[in-house]
Structures are given as structure tokens and as C-alpha cells.
């Protein structure tokens, strides 16, 4: 868990506590399994609970307390927690969402869209992966990593979303992702796609450009 600025999509620049759930249904998180995984470009360590402010939380209240401790005191603005991962839809439930609400938080999710979502979320970002079927029926933003051979934008242009974004694929190696040629090439391709298809907007991973979490 960490406090940072949302670096992607329609809410870019907004302060939030990121709550990163471990495990995913589209990749084990082990490098030896990456090539064969449905999602094979993940830029995140999704294994274990030993990350920054990590742990195993047996109840919603304990988790909400840990998130609340990361939000600045008396700071104004609406507290915001972004549930991400790994795939947060494997673990997030209505009880946790309503505990966050009781503590004054707005609750967002970053999801691959392949699993049904609990009720009560305030902001849903769906980011489709490869051949995986999206089951989430409506989202606030669709944020498609581009290019993906098995997930071209045309497959998603009729999904119900308030915003459609292309996010250039960065190399899975976060350390050198800011400047590498791979990302520059993908950024150029995404830019060109958005110019030809104005339904789609370009989003860049601002936190990586800034060198923050
Ligand atoms: C690590 S995922 C976790 C949430 C969820 N499992 C998902 O895929 O949306 C968080 C965000 O990072 C994006 N992402 C992951 N790897 C990326 C990469 N190599 N380049 C650009 N975006 C990436 C995902 O598409 C998603 O929007
Ligand atoms: N700053 C920042 N913004 C983000 N937006 C989505 C992220 C994610 O990994 O889910 C992310 C992240 O890891 N860092
Ligand atoms: S990007 Fe999301 S869906 Fe893909 S492996 Fe990482 S956590 Fe799973
Ligand atoms: Mg990230």
C-alpha cells in the first residue's frame, strides 16, 4: 500500500492510497510462467504480501485502518483508495467497500474486467488483457494497453464506458521503462491510433515519468 498520485487515465494527478492485492487470475506472477500467461506484460510484482506496508489482513476493518493511516490528516479533499493488484476482484467484496465508505473514502478499482465486481464501487477502470473475455458490463474508463495482438481496440469500442483510453505498453521491467525504445515505439503507435480514431484518448503512465510509485 502506498500514497501517490493516480498516474493513469481520467483521474490522473489525483492523490490516492493504492491498495495492491496479491495474486491474479491471468498470470501466476512467476517469470517462468510469463510467456504462457494470458497476460504476459505485467509491470508489477503481484506475488506475496511482503511489499511496502504489506501484510495479511483478516478483516475489513483492519485493512481500512491501515489504508486510513496512509491518508494525510486534516488535508481536505475527498480521501480516495484505489484497489489494484494483482487482480483485486479476486478478493474485494461489498463489506470492504462499505467499510471504506464508512471511513469517508471513495473507492476505485483497477481490474482486468474478467470477473464480476462487487456493488458500491465509485470508479471502475477496466483494462482488457489478450484473449480474456471482459464480463464487466459498464465502466467509468476502459484503459487498453496498446498494442496487444489479441486485444485490438476494435474489440472494445462498443463496450459501455464513459472514457476510452489507450495506454502504451511499457516493458515489464519497470526500472528501465521510462526511456526504452520499446515504449517509445508503442507510444508513437498509440498516438497514431488516437489521431485516426478520436473515440480513443492517449494516457501516459505519469508516475513512471515522474519516478514515483
Ligand atoms: C498491474 S495492473 C493491476 C490491476 C488489474 N489486474 C489490471 O490488469 O487492470 C494495473 C494497471 O497497470 C497496467 N499495466 C500493467 N502492465 C503494464 C505495462 N507493461 N504497460 C502499461 N500498462 C501496464 C494494467 O493494464 C492496469 O491498467
Ligand atoms: N501512480 C500510480 N498510478 C497508478 N494507476 C494504476 C496503477 C496500478 O498499478 O494499478 C498505478 C501505479 O502503480 N502507480
Ligand atoms: S496486468 Fe493485471 S491482469 Fe495482467 S498479470 Fe498484472 S495484475 Fe494480472
Ligand atoms: Mg502500476
Automatic annotation (TrEMBL):
Catalytic activities: 6-carboxy-5,6,7,8-tetrahydropterin + H(+) = 7-carboxy-7-carbaguanine + NH4(+)
Pathway in which the depicted protein is active: Purine metabolism; 7-cyano-7-deazaguanine biosynthesis
One record GO biological process: tRNA queuosine(34) biosynthetic process
The enzyme's E.C. designation: 4.3.99.3
Residues binding [4Fe-4S] cluster: 24, 39, 42
Co-factor binding details: Binds 1 [4Fe-4S] cluster. The cluster is coordinated with 3 cysteines and an exchangeable S-adenosyl-L-methionine.
Biological role: Catalyzes the complex heterocyclic radical-mediated conversion of 6-carboxy-5,6,7,8-tetrahydropterin (CPH4) to 7-carboxy-7-deazaguanine (CDG), a step common to the biosynthetic pathways of all 7-deazapurine-containing compounds.
Name used for this protein in its record: 7-carboxy-7-deazaguanine synthase
Provenance organism: Oleiphilus messinensis
Organism lineage: Bacteria, Pseudomonadati, Pseudomonadota, Gammaproteobacteria, Oceanospirillales
Gene designation: queE
